[in-house]
Amino acid sequence: MSGTGPASRAEICVVACAETWRGDGEVLAAPMGLIPTIAARLARLTFAPDLLLTDGEALLVADVPAVGARARVAEGWLPYRRHLGLAMGGRRHVMMGASQLDRYGNQNISCIGDWERPARQLLGVRGAPVNTLNHPTSYWIPRHSPRVMVEHVDMVCGVGNDRATAAGPSATRHHCLRRVVTDLAVLDFATPDGRLRVRSLHPDVTPEEVRRATGFPLDVPAGAPRTREPTPAELHLIREVLDPGGLREKEVPR
Q1: Average confidence (pLDDT) over 189-209
Q2: Left (φ > 0), alpha (ψ -120 to 50) or beta: where does 66 sit?
Q3: Quick one: which of 24, 72, 147, 240 has the fewest CB in 10 Å?
Q4: Domain carrying residue 44
Q5: In degrees rounded to 5, what are phi and psi of residue 167?
Q6: What is the CATH number of the domain that holds 232?
Q7: First to last CA, the chain
Q8: Is residue 163 part of a domain?
């Protein structure tokens, strides 16, 4: 879906996700999912030229292909051991998804319901604890709803601010929850006790809409700004270079 016209909600979400990597320098971007992948590539092509991208296998790539296309130019070898070394050393910024996320950033991607007899089996814990305890972590939520933004997660996979604090310095030393981007707003944890708050509202979204879609009390500061819209150059890159097939609009419909 290339062309002209005002930015769609999906394109605003792409830019909001890209902004999570602003100022990171030479770190490995680890986007999980379509819109985070477009976002990391947009950041690399614009304000974060030092960002490291992979082909999803074992190579660092120098070019920035469209989603679904293979990179043609490699700039380094990144086997699993070296990838883990970057992760454990804090040189990686991942953007994960979440089946459930609570006010402190505890994330669940493992199961819904009681752990011993879950109603739904999901991905499993995977690398979420190591991600959240060793390097910056952000989240992408394509459907902001009370089913995802919950009072308590059914199982902790990614470690939230409250649990990291309770565990002490060994957990908090490299623990860094950066942002949560949803289809309604951008949120962060810049509060005294590390709870989520609204950082910006996407255009045409009201504070009441975000509160209704959240399963816990959420701070929406008075006069919360609007999430910035893509520049013409960014829209060109999203529409013509990175996602000419318009797959982003299927993830966040117009």
Answers
A1: 97
A2: beta
A3: 72
A4: 9-251
A5: -75, -20
A6: 3.40.1080.10
A7: 12
A8: yes
